[in-house]
Write a structure and sequence with these properties.
Shape: flat
Largest sheet: 4 strands, antiparallel
Strand order of the largest sheet: 3-2-5-6
Structural class: alpha+beta
CATH class of the largest domain: Mainly Alpha
Number of helices: 14
Order of helices and strands: HHEEEEEEEHHHHHHHHHHHH
CATH architecture of the largest domain: Alpha Horseshoe
Number of strands: 7
Strand content: 5-15%
Helix content: 55-70%
Length: 364
């Protein structure tokens, strides 16, 4: 009986188990039947989503893949520019990548920079150019024509040295110009103008006298008069670098920045190490809104002068580098505490959100 009872119980349990298993199989079969009946609609939609996903992934660039920036650097005359430096910088002026052009003017740079806006800078001696580009992980081809092509700076400087030496200045006229310079440094502008006038009475074709008077006109806040005198100086001696700097300064003060850029380039063409010419070129680029290129050009200026810190501070402000800008403003105040622009600079340093341009005013 016990055995029969145990067997009966086991038989009941086994039978219940089979029923439960059978029920699950029926449910699965029912679902399968339903799925088979609705398979055209249920299968097509997932396949469409899958195909769309595959197509999207095929078109989406791989963010981890380096971007190739390549292209050609030419002069405005269509000649290739070899051995030129090519830099990729972000909109804050930070260098991201760099390379050089080959003998055919071609370059190729790879970078892992994230997608966004960048500035491509090109420089070879006095030839400079820039172009804003967009990177999106796809290869980018760029062509830049450099607007200024003067050949070798050293050779050009030598070319203009001979005619400048041939224009002899009489000793008496030179003595008056020396006195004019001394009085100018002491801010005795009236005395400096008298000495220049006497030099011109001795030699009315003295280019150096007109060039010096152009600088004096700038100190007297007369940019139009400075342009007139500088132009006369250059008509007498096209190698008068000081006259070109005076022109660049005058044009900057009149906010004619493209003309200022051209004049500053002409000054550097004759005297490549003329730091005043480089400074005026930087101001002109700043005025044109080419802040990244302006910062690069200022980096080429190896001169610790108060106005250099002032210009760099203004550029850094425009590049959203306020902390560095404040340091440059502070350095300007340390080096030129009595400068008439110092009060304005102090206000700028005191207000981190204020942006102002204070370097375009001429200071003798």
């Amino acid at each position: 009986m016990l055995a029969d009872s145990r067997s009966s119980r086991c038989g009941i349990c086994h039978e219940r188990t089979n029923r439960r298993s059978y029920s699950k199989k029926v449910d699965q079969l029912s679902c399968l039947v339903i799925e088979r009946r609705t398979s055209p609609a249920c299968l097509v939609l997932p396949l469409l989503f899958l195909l769309a996903s595959l197509a999207g992934s095929a078109q989406t660039p791989d963010a981890s893949r380096p971007t190739l920036i390549h292209g050609l650097i030419l002069t405005t005359q269509g000649q290739p520019v070899d051995r030129a430096t090519v830099e990729v910088r972000n909109l804050r002026g930070m260098k991201i990548a760099a390379g050089f052009t080959d003998s055919a003017g071609k370059f190729a740079i790879t970078t892992t920079a994230k997608a966004g806006e960048y500035v491509l800078l090109v420089a070879k001696e006095l030839q400079i150019g820039d172009k804003r580009i967009t990177l999106d992980q796809l290869d980018r081809e760029v062509t830049i024509a450099l607007p200024f092509n003067s050949g070798s700076a050293a050779a050009t400087s030598q070319m203009y040295t001979v005619p400048a030496q041939e224009l002899r200045v009489p000793a008496k006229a030179r003595a008056h110009l020396k006195l004019a310079h001394q009085k100018f440094i002491k801010l005795n502008f009236a005395g400096a103008e008298r000495e220049i006038g006497q030099a011109l009475q001795i030699n009315s074709t003295c280019a150096a006298a007109f060039s010096m008077r152009a600088v004096l006109r700038l100190a007297l806040r007369d940019p139009d008069g400075a342009i007139e005198d500088a132009t006369r100086a250059l008509a007498l001696d096209s190698g008068e670098a000081d006259a070109y700097v005076a022109l660049a300064t005058a044009y900057n003060s009149l906010r004619e920045f493209e003309s200022a850029e051209t004049a500053a380039q002409q000054a550097l063409q004759r005297l490549p190490d003329f730091w005043q010419g480089r400074l005026e070129l930087t101001k002109a680029l700043y005025g044109e809104g080419r802040f990244v290129l302006a910062l690069r050009e200022l980096g080429e200026l190896n001169n610790d002068f108060p106005d250099v810190h002032l210009v760099r501070a203004n550029i850094l402000q425009r590049l959203d580098r306020s902390q560095e800008a404040a340091e440059e403003f502070s350095q300007f105040l340390r080096e030129a505490p009595n400068d008439p622009r110092s009060e304005q600079v102090k206000r700028i340093v005191g207000s981190s959100t204020e942006r102002a341009t204070v370097f375009l005013s001429f200071k003798p």
